[in-house]
Amino acid sequence: MSDTPVKQQITPAYYAQAVASFGLALVAMAVGIVKLDASAWVRGFLAVAVLYLTTSAFTLAKVIRDRQEAGQLVSRVDQARLEKILAEHDPFQKL
Prior knowledge:
Elements: H1 12-35, H2 40-88
Helix pairs in contact: 1-2
């Protein structure tokens, strides 16, 4: 009996929804900054802040994904070692 995790598949519809949502949020923020009744310095600062926040979000998502994948790899190696030990063990063997 193996506890192999089920690989989750991302559907094309889910992917399209995520891309569209991200694009819409970025465009809405850009329009909001452009239409803001403030000086060019304030709008520029907000634009740079939005770009920084966006790149930071991508970096954070990648780091979380990488840590999760590394944890799964270690878990698989440990599981394989345990299965090998159990397969080689004979409880009825005389000592």
